[in-house]
Amino acid sequence: MPGADKETDLTERIEAFLADLKRGGSGTGPLRGSGEMARETTYLLRRITAQARWSSAGDLMEIIRNEGRRMTAAQPSETTVGNMVRRVLKIIREEYARSRGSSEETEQQESLHKLLTAGELSEETFREHFVHLKANVIEAINELLTELDGTTDNIAMQALEHIHSNEVIMTVGRSRTVEAFLKDAARKRKFHVIVAECAPFCQGHEMATGLSKVGIETTVIADAAIFAVMSRVNKVIIGTQTVLANGGLRAVNGTHSVALAARHHSTPLIICAPMFKLSPQFPNEEDTFHKFVSPHEVLPFTAGEILSKVNVHCPVFDYVPPELITLFISNIGGNAPSYIYRLMSELYHPEDHKL
Amino acid sequence: MADCGEPDGPGNKDDITRSKNEGKELTKEEKQRLRKQKKHQKKQKERKNEKGPSETEKDKTPVSLLPPPQPVATQKAPSALPAPASAPIPVPASAPFHSSPAPSPADKPAKSKAELKAERRARQETDRAAKQPGSSSSGIKTKVPLSELNPVVKRLPEHVQVDDPAVVKRLAKKLERQQIPLRSDYGYKVSLFSHLHQYSRKAPLTQLLSIPSTVIHPSIVRLGLQYSQGIVAGSNARSVALLHAFKQVIRDYTTPPNEELSRDLVNKLKPYISFLNQCRPLSASMGNAIKYIKKEISNIPSQCKEEEAKTKLLTCIDRYIEEKIVLAAKAISKYAIEKISDGDVILVYGYSSLVNNILCEAFEKSRKFRVIVVDSRPRLEGREALRRLVQRGISCTYVLISALSYILPEVSKVFLGAHALLANGYVMSRVGTSQIALVARTYNVPVLVCCETYKFCERVQTDSFVSNELDDPDDLMVTRKGKTQLENWQDVSSLGLLNLVYDVTPPDFVDLVITDLGMIPCTSVPVVLRVKNLDQ
């Protein structure tokens, strides 16, 4: 039976994706960039939309929400998965609203007047069946995918507006977005890049080799030298893992020290982050914010006896408060950290903030 | 100052000695100047003998004339202190003579430019001599005028002028004269640091020496190798090793005939110091120790027998180590333990022998605290500190410096060691210290720096670029999961690796400096330096 086959096929794919998420996060599988993760998630969601059984928008949203919860539970630190799920939910709401013909804007819930007069837009209203809803939703998801494909290029195109010649730019660890950004600027301008290696994973080394191959003057420094060197740096350009709802960052560890050093020397701190990294989470949940990996990266097993007597920590992420950030460069342009909340309301529906 | 304690005999040696006592070494220009002044004085004395003694308002204390074979005159203090306490400058006698002939130019021929210069310098020296604290005028004036404080602009050390080819050539000539091989730089140097040396550990200087080396004492060769390979590291360890090596040198030394021990030994030490400098640039503590030794050697009176002189020098060195390092550590521990309370969480960075000492002593006095050791690549010195603390039974946590923002909210105090304390209040220490101080200040955690006074240095520096040390760049390479990303960094022309050793921390990040003289704020370092100089 084709239906059943499709379903088992679908569940298989979902299970495979979940397993991949679990493995990839623990550091043993191949490390994938967030862009790839976002794309994979969206493909999967498109497949669910196409192959799962649903009759109304409410059903579809229920299914996607369930799958989304499972996916975020598999790897809580990979926030792009949750972000994509929320984007798709918003797409469904929009398409539903458009199909109904009502020209309701998404800002309606924010108006106090509307809140009093209109009443809640409850889930029941999503029960209507529209014939073309599936096709519209899939088309919208395809648009989302094209947007995802072009994010790195969009960001890189803005490079020349921000980098002048003979600059000294500092970056931390490895970010594909920042790499593309700098390589694009290097086509027309000559500048110098200092890469902090970011122990213990030392991803800065890869970044440095990548940049120097296209002829950018690169220097690799140890993390300890960040403050020492900062006085000669003109700009700090870094990538991040997540952009939080308050405009803060959840970036690779060591970024907070860089941000503080930049503020001390009044050096601008520029974040290159595509929009799919924007997450409606706030940094207050201490126990879910940090992720730790095996401390053997910090103190290897060869250290011997003392391993049983000391506590060793190896956190992966750092919180950077929004006051330390100067500018966000994303695929839709440059923004101040104080504007992030607005962008977020455009991307996600408030009821989807908690999946 | 003159701890010989015996009345000095006449002689040029004493004067040069005492000039050295002022804390500056005689440069070529100064030697020339001295020679000119002596010539000038001879002339003046002849003139004076014509005119008769004259007194001038400049001269507060009576000047005694020495018999003609003595080309220099010494200034006698009114309280008739013994000669050692009198001013060393050979020129003061000429000052009063200058003022008298000045109004009567017709009496003598027009002075040449050199003589005028000599006069001016003579006047400067008189002023300085008149204000020598060893003399009786200490009661009269407590404030030292500005002209005395830095009479000579210090010559820039060679190791921060690598980009100047003239300086490099001069160094090469000097090393050739001393028969020490010149160490060549390694690898691509980042443009910001082209004025510093960058050596490779795989090419130690000792490979270029002939065996057996006739110029360099074997214990110095061994010491140089230990420095360049990083076997002896840390400013206290390096200073102590240096002093022990010098003790061995002194034991094996014999004065050649027709030479004085005080002058010849100092000359013998010069090539050793150049050699050690080539192996690894001298630290501030080593520089101070060397100054002390040279001063002690020069203070040996000429009639002292060789054996006696050598034992005296050995005891001097032992006393220096005992006072400045061992006892200072005890004093600092005593002060620092007052600052450690029960329940503290103390953060330390890297391996500082002094801070480790403090923590171990505090633990023995049954203070309850735990320690967080922060470490950084590529040296990973914190592991050594961790080992020693764990052995004593102190509960420790270990993180890398990138996890600093994660761990700091738990911390109640930060204890840091220092390599040197600069005269403008900046703390020079292992690279990464300034970062720790910065983040600690953001979290409002007090930062305490522990430093002995012998590491205080008169240099000033505001950033970590102008004077630093570049370590072997290959240390930054790391092999993870079987791959070494930077393996062929030399082949890529636009890639450079930077391995800094030191950095400077601004004084506003540091809350307190604990020294053997007490607990002082960072900005009081020049006060301590002046007190030290006056004592000497």
Question: What does the model show?
Answer:
The complex is a heterodimer of chains A (355) and B (536). By secondary structure, chain A is of the alpha/beta class. Chain A has helices spanning 2-25, 34-51, 57-74, 79-100, 112-118, 133-157, 159-162, 176-186, 203-213, 226-230, 255-264, 286-289, 340-347, and strands at residues 168-172, 192-196, 217-221, 235-238, 242-243, 249-252, 269-272, 310-312, 317-320, 327-330, 333-335. Chain A has a seven-stranded mixed beta sheet with strand order 3-2-1-4-7-10-11, sandwiched between helices. A three-stranded antiparallel beta sheet of chain A has the order 5-6-9, covered by helices on one side. In chain A, helix 1 runs antiparallel to helix 2 (34-51) and helix 1 packs parallel to helix 3. Chain B is an alpha/beta fold. Helices cover 41% and strands 10% of the residues of chain B. Chain B is built from 16 helices and 13 strands. Chain B has helices spanning 12-21, 28-51, 94-99, 113-130, 146-149, 165-178, 218-229, 235-251, 261-279, 284-298, 306-338, 353-364, 382-392, 404-407, 433-442, 525-535, and strands at residues 344-349, 369-375, 396-400, 413-417, 420-421, 427-430, 447-450, 479-480, 483-484, 495-498, 502-505, 512-515, 518-520. The model of chain B is unreliable at 1-12, 52-108 and 133-142 (pLDDT under 50). Classes of the chains: A alpha/beta (355), B alpha/beta (536). At the A-B interface, helix 9, strand 3, helix 10, helix 11 and strand 8 of A face helix 13, strand 3, helix 14, helix 15 and strand 10 of B. Strand 8 (310-312) of chain A pairs parallel with strand 3 (396-400) of chain B. Chain A: Belongs to the eIF-2B alpha/beta/delta subunits family. Chain A: One of its GO terms (molecular function) is translation initiation factor activity. Chain A: It is found in: Cytoplasm, Cytosol. Chain A: It comes from Oncorhynchus kisutch (Coho salmon).
